[in-house]
Queue: 3 jobs
Job 1
Amino acid sequence: MKKRGIGIGTMLYAIGFGFNRPDIASALVEIAEDGTATVITGCAELGQGSNTVLCQIVAEELGIRYEDVRIVHADTAATPDAGPTTASRQTYVSGNAVKLATADAKKEILNLAAEMLETSADILVVKDRTIYVKEKPALSLPFAKAANEAHRRGRRFIGFGWYNNTTKDVDPETGLGDAYATYLYATHFAEVEVDTETGEVTVLNFATAHDVGKAINPLNIEGQVEGSVAMGLGYALQEEIMLEHGQILTPSLSEYYIPTALDMPDDITTFIVEEEEPTGPFGAKGLGEAGAIPTAPAIINAIYDAVGVRVTKLPATAEHIRSLLRHKEAQGHVAGEAR
């Protein structure tokens, strides 16, 4: 017999190191004579999409195209320190550093543009690769023209940004304090089918809702969430390190089973919740580890909803679920005999 159930997992997750530990990032941004820009950052791209996001931040701040921005990253000989890619911190911490660096370079090019337009820099706006007077859009010049003029005059526009996310410590007596700058929130929903004869669990459908602040790249968020669900599914149902007398019995992927496309649910729906974080770059907070944290709880709760057994040890393999079901049946028989 197969039974279905629905489960929910909810979490909050702090961004950065917190608890008064140094959490710092820095970056450089240079505007070239053709109006393109280069961001130089120590942020390590591990597949999470930080290179894309940081280039988008530069493009938005300068009012140029994403295609006009290149990145030099994670080269200890050439890039300023951005801290490690961990603690779901890079969009927030390095993103702020990059935004500050871009604003620093932008300030100088606007000063030059003000000279060229014979106006004041504080009333200039940059958008769609054009610098113009806010109240008089017709009074304008191409962004690239100002950049070219700067280089003709021997001026280089290089901005530097430094962001400190270090928070205050928590009072050990009261537990109160400024532990973290901001938090991520998420809820995952799972629908599963459990075979009561074999114990096999199939995840049929999955839905997620993530508060990311401002979604700088929604498609990147969807992709990261889907990958995170795959990781969480493996953690919940399949991936297990087996030890015997200190010897690892699962030394390779032929024994350590990770999910494949066939193990994934037919549908993963991602809801992006945008509650702008005032301290984040353009309101962004990020995603990171929050994508995987609620997945296993949602699946385990769905199993309980389906067959009434509570899993307290992961992974919830078919053998483990079958054992729990048989134990539940045995308890029921004993209870029946006692009556």
Note: The radius of gyration is 26 Å.
Job 2
Amino acid sequence: MTNSFVPSYKALKPEDAKALAGSLLAWLVLVNSLLLLLAWWLAPSLVHLLVGDANNIDIDLAIKLTRITFPFLSAISLAALVMGILQAEERFFAPAWAPVSSLTSSPLP
């Protein structure tokens, strides 16, 4: 998404670029919400499809963990949009510093 978004975003006037970013954000939230609901509903089927032979696996736990981890995919797609906007605006510090600041803000074991 970033490879096609950044040149398109940079070619627009600032007010049009803001409108494009807002509409993409709205679409991403809508599509991600629908996919998240669908994944939540289909989690048992997905787990059974991916696990196959479930002799040594707690299926209920696998379904619960699948439902817990699916929102991460939505967060990643929204982060990709934000990073594309920051790159188009030539603001590189925030995305470059994010992994470092997350390491320094949590205490190490």
Note: The first helix runs from residue 2 to 11.
Job 3
Amino acid sequence: MKAKNGRLSFFEKFGYSLGDVASNFYFQTFILFITYFYTDVYGISASAVATLFMVTRVWDAVNDPLMGMIADRTNTKMGKFRPFILWFAIPFGIIGVLTFTTPDFGMTGKIVYAYVTYILLIMLYTVVNVPYSALMGVLTEDPKERTVVASYRLIAAFVAGIIVQVSVMTLVRKLGGDNEQLGWQWTMSILSGVATVLLFITFAATKERVVPLHSQKTTMKQDFADLFKNIAWVCIAVVSVFTLIMIVVRNGSIMYYFKYYVKVVNLSFFGRELSIEFGTAASSFMIIGTILSIVGAILVGSLAKKIDKRKSYLWLLGLFAVTSVVFYVFSPDDFILMVLSQIIATTSLGALGVLQWSIFPDTADYSEWKTGRRATGLVMAASLFSIKLGLALGGSILAWLLALFGFQPNVAQSPDTLIGIRLIISVFPAVFAVLAFIVMWLYPLDQSILDQVESALQKRRQQKGGADAAVVE
């Protein structure tokens, strides 16, 4: 598993990417189904779900950066970050099953159970994914190779998304029959078991190479000071929050849009009429989007050496915003137009995801260039927190908007509620895309600056005899 000139083998990049398949069995389920599960299956109100998502972020505000600093200060023969993937893979899987288990409690007991299991799941997601994300920053010191690694990672994540979209509702129906609660429990048992195995493979396939100077001694206060003085990180962190909100609000509303607004898709092929019920139509819509997200990720990965990350991110946000707004005008019969819009929007999202994950390690390099100190774990932990914050805010905003527009589960919706659902899937995501665009405009690291940072760090390492952030074979 040697890295020649900063380049990694296919085996290592592929092995690393499997960790994101594992994580996205949960992450994609959060985005697509968690609000639906809690309201329509588990049986608690949309407002209670919104509050649950927000309360969990209070602990995350401490948990994520703390995990990053713990990882930065961990030293084992296996490295700083890989051991956590090994140690916590099994507990992560167990809590994943319990979170999607519906207990036979009263409403108060069910809400308490939801808080306990969801908070534990998010904590273990942090314990595994902060080190996993930081690992990408120490596999290689080459920023362009990181974009390639990020492309592998995002393609794997989208593959996981397809698996979730294709299998989850089918497994729920097959394994649970008329008991949807039992179906969810068995479905998540299968996904959690596979995720655990994949995390073990990621641990075995990777190696940490970029290590800080052994004499580097920093306090937590200094680490945080460096982080918030890092304007590049602050910008991409805020952009990530807005980006995740727009994704979660849009994707989380798909089930509601098809169940209550579209209801049945009627298509005509060569004189034959075809009717598709909402669940199949929604799953097909999601799968098409995920396939095109993979296309977007592949395109960005193949162009990694030619694109300016900042400019590309701005163009993609603009394209998504325009495509999203147009979605509002579609009638229930415009399924083909919905799919065309989905193709453009999700291709943009796939490319955005690759750029986002490749930019985070760049900001760690930028901080090291400015301060002479490296804290990859904290940078990636804080970055993951920004993504989880966007995930939680997106889920909460979705639930609050549903409540605001008078949504009631499993009944015919009023005209005002249907208008609200159409706004939620179209206009609101576009608003957050515009906010992300404004902040990304301030991001300072264009390609010329990145080249300068890489060159300066390489010279610094050579002058220090390779001890500072040396590349270890």
Note: Confidence is low (pLDDT under 50) at residues 466-473.
